[in-house]
Write a structure and sequence with these properties.
about 300 residues, two-stranded antiparallel sheet, 11 helices, 7 strands, about 40% helix
Length: about 300
């Protein structure tokens, strides 16, 4: 029977590099944010970011759910079958895509894990990837035209974590902190594989740079992972800035771009503060140093 492992996360948490490492296992299909299609592009889409595009009537939350629960899946060419030929099926997705929509079948059929990172680090990256430069109608890489703090996604990560912890008290979800992954990629991936039943391989944190077809629906968001050749350890991690400092820097940038009037800065600040609370509530559940192979070397995406 195929082992099914789901990684839930929020934007800018190093999740694409994590996914890229799983791809290197070559042990089964790897789905890339399947619920994102329903959330942004489906006939019952939630977000209006792509409202200039007609909704895809073939896609809905239910159709995606049916596909990931089916014995066989035709969602992507690389995910052509969940059958006895594959030992593992893996999916990475944003928790905010499925807020309040996860089914009991999905809870039971997949092993659920989480990847988190301090929100004061992720929101800065999300802002920079969302807002166009001065004089531009859209971001020159991602094509996005505005920042929406609702896409920060941490409250939804915590709600899903809390729900699954309550629903499956005998099997607490596995949580990985991105900074710990960057400090010790080999150790953290080994511990993750041991806990999930994935087949750990020492070379899974190295790969050949290049495109992954399933990522192309999100142009510009995965460039670091596409151009990288793997994860190599960092010797230290930069501490997160305070919420006030992060919001101040975002405001200053917005003033430079003459877009500060378009944003509710009080709401942005409170949302980031809530995200930090959610993150800190999950940190005690993360894989601990005693569960990984500790190495004193350095992790960042290594570029050729």
């Amino acid at each position: 029977m195929t082992r099914r492992v789901w990684l839930w996360t929020a934007p800018r948490c190093v999740s694409t590099a994590f996914e890229r490492a799983i791809i290197e296992l070559h042990c089964g299909p790897v789905l890339h944010e399947p619920f994102g299609n329903a959330y942004y592009f489906g006939k019952d889409r939630v977000h209006e970011r792509y409202q200039d595009q007609a909704p895809d009537e073939r896609v809905s939350f239910q159709s995606v759910l049916d596909a990931v629960l089916a014995p066989e899946s035709t969602m992507t060419d690389s995910a052509s079958a969940f059958d006895s030929e594959h030992s593992v099926a893996f999916s990475k997705d944003m928790a905010y895509y499925v807020d309040g929509k996860i089914s009991r079948e999905l809870e039971r059929e997949w092993l659920h894990t989480f990847l988190i990172r301090h929100p004061c680090k992720t929101v800065t990256s999300l802002w920079k990837k969302s807002v166009p430069e001065l004089g531009s109608q859209a971001h020159d890489v991602t094509g996005w035209t505005y920042f929406d703090v609702a896409e920060l996604g941490f409250a939804e990560v915590y709600r899903l974590f809390d729900h699954l912890t309550t629903a499956q008290p005998q099997q607490a979800p596995i949580v990985v902190d991105a900074d710990q992954l960057l400090l010790n990629p080999q150790g953290v991936m080994r511990a993750y594989c041991q806990r999930t039943g994935l087949p750990f391989q020492k070379d899974m944190t190295s790969w050949e740079p290049g495109r992954v077809p399933e990522w192309e629906v999100w142009p510009g968001w995965h460039d670091d992972a596409i151009e990288s050749s793997g994860l190599v350890q960092r010797s230290s991690i930069t501490p997160p800035k305070s919420v006030d400092k992060v919001v101040q820097e975002m405001q200053q940038h917005a003033i430079t771009l003459d877009i500060q009037q378009h944003y509710d800065w009080s709401h942005i600040r409170s949302t980031i503060q809530e995200a930090v609370v959610c993150y800190e509530a999950m940190v005690p559940h993360c894989l601990q140093a005693s569960q990984v192979l500790v190495d004193s070397s350095t992790a960042t995406l290594h570029r050729h």
